[in-house]
Amino acid sequence: MTVDLLVDEGGVRACPGVRLRRAGLRDGETAVVDRTRVTTPARTALDLARWLPRGEAVVVVDALLRVTGTELDAVRAVADAHAGERDVRRAAEALAWVDPRSPTARVSRVRVGLLARGLETPLVAQRLLDGDGRPVAELALAWPGVRTGVAHQQGVRGAAAALGWEVLEVRADVAEVWGTRNAPAPIDVLARELRRAADRWHPAPRLGGRNPARLPRPPGPDGECDGGLSRLVPA
Fold it and tell me: How far apart are CA 113 and CA 93, in angstroms?
C-alpha cells in the first residue's frame, strides 16, 4: 500500500510506502482529523482527478463525493483557484465525467466505459414509472431524449417497451469483463446496442421508404414523457 503525502515546501524526503506530491495549498483546503492535517474532500477530489488516469479518477471521485456529501461545484471552485497549475486541465477533463449520484463503483465504471466510447452523458440512478406512477424499472443509466436506458435487473424490458422505452438488461459487472480474439468485450456490445436503440428515432432514409421517425419531445420539468405515458424520476 502506498500513501500519497501532499507537501507544499521542500526539505521533505520520501520513505518506503510514501509517495510525495508537491503542490500549493490555499486557505480552507485542509482540515484536522484525529490531530492529523488532511486535505478537504473537495481538494482531495481535485488531486485525485489530476493524478489518476481519467477512468479510474471518475470512479474514485464519484464515490468520494457521494460518501462525503461534497458538491461537484465545490471541487470545480477549488480547480478554478488553481488554474494554470500542473495537471489542473487534466483534472477538468475527469471532472466533466463525474456524477456523485452513481450508487456504486460498478455503475460508475459502466458509465465511464460508455462515455469513453463516445456515447452522450446519461442521467444516473433513475426510476421509470408508468402513467399511474407505478414503478416499471430501476435504471442505472438513462437517456430520456431517446427513451433508452440500462437496468441491472431482469424482466423489465417488456414493460418498459410498452411505454415507448428501450431498456437493455445487463449485468452490473459488464464493464469488468475483457473481450477475446473471437468475442468483443461486453461493454463494447452494450455501446453498440445503445447506439442502435438511439438510432431507431432517426434511421437512415431508404429510397421509397417512409420518412425517418422524429425524435420524441424532451421530458417535462417533472420527468413526464409522451403526454403522461411514462415518467422518469430520481431513484
Answer: 15
Q: What is the DSSP letter of 155?
A: S
pLDDT on residue 10: 62
Is residue 203 pLDDT above 60, yes or no? no
The CA distance from 194 to 149, in Å, is 8
CA–CA dist 192, 214 (Å, integer): 21
> Cell 470545480 identifies what position?
76
Predicted TM-score (pTM) of the model is: 0.86
β-bridge mates for residue 30, sequence order: 39
- Separation in Å, CA 41 to CA 58, 101, 104, 177, 229: 14, 16, 18, 31, 41
Task: Specify the DSSP class assigned to residue 176.
Answer: G
- 3-state SS, 93-130, equals HHHCCCCCCCCCHHHHHHHHHHHHCCCCCCEEEEEEEE
Q: Which of 6, 20, 97, 22 has the alpha carbon at shortest distance from 60?
A: 97
